[in-house]
Specification:
142 residues, mainly alpha, two-stranded parallel ribbon, two-stranded antiparallel ribbon, 6 helices, elongated
């Protein structure tokens, strides 16, 4: 389980579509990622988020790749999994085929992800000591 943010690891998170979209060849991107790695190593790395509607995004490809790696680290360490929609649909179909009475309820929590207290979440991650290299802060959290 490699939690480092070296250029060769981050390159694995870059799609060929992104390389074309950002008009970047491998060597230029690798150089940029080496600079990002140095920032992460010296604890100077920050995310600059942009708000698009209800969502937060980052513009730079290098920052997107770091976010993907950070997401991958969190998923592996905490074993967080999104519900498998295909499996849920199969289960609902099976239940609907049964002859016993049933109720179907669909719920949605409005702005669920937007309502998460980011400072508390970052503090929890820091307390859990994911790794020296997974210790990030963003401009918004300062």
């Amino acid at each position: 389980m490699n939690q480092n943010y070296t250029s060769n690891i981050l390159l694995k998170y870059c799609t060929s579509f992104e390389k074309r979209e950002y008009q970047i060849d491998g060597s230029n991107l690798e150089t940029d990622l080496d600079l990002v790695y140095d920032e992460v190593k010296t604890n100077k790395f920050t995310f600059d988020f942009n708000r698009v509607g209800n969502y937060l995004t980052v513009d730079l490809l290098t920052k997107k790749l770091v976010l993907r790696k950070l997401n991958d680290n969190i998923l592996r360490i905490y074993q967080v999994k999104q519900a498998n929609r295909s499996l849920i649909i199969k289960q609902v179909i099976t239940i609907l085929k049964e002859s016993s009475p049933y109720w179907i309820l669909k719920t949605d929590i409005k702005n669920f992800y937007e309502s998460i207290d980011r400072k508390s979440l970052l503090n929890k991650l820091k307390e859990e000591t994911l790794s020296y290299y997974s210790n990030f802060t963003s401009q918004q959290d300062r």
